[in-house]
Amino acid sequence: MKDNTQPPGHIPSLVAGIAPAVKAVSSQGGDILNNAIRQNVIDNVAKLKSATPILSAAVEDKKLEVVGGNYRLKDGKVVPSCKGSSKRLGASYTFAEMRESGVRGILVYCADYQCSHSIAISGDSWPDDVRLSDIEARFICEACGKRGADVRRDFNWDKKRVRVIGYR
Ligand SMILES: [Zn+2]
User: Fold this and answer.
1) Model confidence over 39-80: pLDDT tens digits?
2) How far apart are CA 43 and CA 31, in angstroms?
3) Where are the alpha helices (DSSP H) in the chain?
4) S-S: 110 plus which of 30, 115, 127, 134, CB 3.0-4.6 Å?
5) pLDDT value at position 145?
6) What is residue 44's predicted lDDT score, i.e. its pLDDT?
């Protein structure tokens, strides 16, 4: 790419796709290849996030997280561009981070999608350094008896509490 020669086959379209990223990093020095790969992922994640009103609205509502990844030609594996970013949204929060975000309750969904039993409970009893994903395997569903759950932050934790107390 440095000498502007035309490569064969589909390669020109691939090169055109990453050219902006290469241009952006080539003045920065350092490892140009690695920097270009990273910049290309950053560019495409940004593009996807704002691509359509539906996608960007979902990102805003935190229903969707756009995660950068690299498709490695070497072994065909998709590797996330940064550690931890491939985890399901919310699951990688620690209880400390959850409390910092102003949420005190968790929603526990039965891992069996056919059962779909769920409960809303307080997260206060778990210590700060435990991740929400750490406790998923420890739940046993009250309805179907199966072990395993999806644990999410309960953004409505304070509203539910009001309903439980009752207000007349
Ligand atoms: Zn269940």
Assistant:
1) 777 777 777 766 666 666 766 666 666 666 656 666 666 665
2) 18
3) 11-26, 32-49, 53-60, 95-100, 157-165
4) 115
5) 93
6) 72
Ligand 1 centroid from CA 146, angstroms: 6
| Cα of 141 from ligand 1 centre, angstroms | 5
The answer to whether residue 6 sits within a structural domain is: no
Separation of CA 138 and ligand 1 centre (Å): 13
CA distance linking residue 28 with residue 98, whole number of Å: 37
In a domain, 32, yes or no: yes
Report yes or no on 41 lying in a domain.
yes
Q: What is the phi-psi region of residue 132: left when phi exceeds 0, alpha when psi lies from -120 to 50, beta otherwise?
A: alpha
Mean pLDDT of the chain: 76
Q: Is the pLDDT score of 90 beyond 50?
A: no
The CA 114 to ligand 1 mean position distance, Å, reads 8
Print the domain residue range for 116: 95-165
Q: Which of 89, 95, 81, 7 is nearest to 38 (CA)?
A: 81
Domain count, the chain: 2
